[in-house]
Prior knowledge:
four-stranded antiparallel beta sheet; disordered N terminus; 3 domains
Amino acid sequence: MSSGPRSQSVDNIAADQLRRKLSAGSSRVFDCERLHRDVVKSGAEPGQFMFHKPDLNRVIYIKEPFTEEAMADDAGRLVGTKLYFSYNERDAYEGGRSIFVNDRTLRTALHFHAGISEDDTSDEIARDLGLLRALEELPSLDPFLLKDRLNADGLKVHDGYLEISEAEFAEIREFVMNRFRPMVEMAFEGADQADQLTHLRTLVEKIWEAKDMEGLAPILKALQLQADEAPGIFYAWKGVICYDFLRAKQRERWKDYAAFLGKDTVPTDVIPKEQREDLDALVGMVRSLFKQRWMRIEKTLSDYNNAYDMLFKERKSPAPFIDFLRESPSHFFSLGDCISSIDHAIEVWNGFKQSRVLKRMKYDRLYPLMGLTVRILE
């Protein structure tokens, strides 16, 4: 199971903070257990369940930084997906054990906690392990990305697990597709209008699917990409665009949270000097971590949009855009980690607030909030 000197494993968090961390409706936490209960109540058939193996539907899936450098090196990224197995089936937040998907002892843990034999090679377990790998390859568990990834992998599940309406999904999809279109137009510049429209409709869809590299040959040539590297790059580019959309949607929430950190972190009650100093230190850490993550998001998306505009609007050098695309898998995970951690911190804050109007709180609520937020934003 997950361990290490800097471990922030969920099973080491006090029960109250564990409840607040796991119940916060953020893109870092996929509460499959809660969603599964609702899906079952809706009358769904077992074939529509998220996982074929029943106990995997009673797990909470969490995005967290790897606690061991070796695991991060093996994964090629800093963030992984944890499975949280609760001790008490009636109350998942009383405590439990957790393990990263890419932990070498995962199959042993699945045998112990989910009753899945280590030598089970059935189609059902192969499908479920494939779904776990799909979760692992996402930087966050945002409903749009989750639904898109399941669609891409041909994994059909009940809509109740996805928490995104068709209208919301279509809105983000259209935003992404609109960002793809100038690339196709540029690749077929000079073709007659009818041919250009035909290529536009077809190739934008192919970029979205990122599977038919032969059909995308003109685009690969324009971007100086090899066919073997293009699928991952196109998928990550799609993710970057999605996060650009979400950043715009979330900015006012982030500003509201920044205002709270700036002026409302003084407790409403009188506390001893030592406690005040400890609290001030925690608040300082939260402010610094929040600023670092927000600035990283702004820098990455500013670089992306500047390179995009330079190529497709100003018709200048393609080099900055191509350079960004080549690094897009790394940018995709960095953006996902930063945006989802901020999202998680804000949702936990909302859970601690006693009033929508009054943001200040007493020390006994403010101090644990700041401590938990440090863990989330680190």
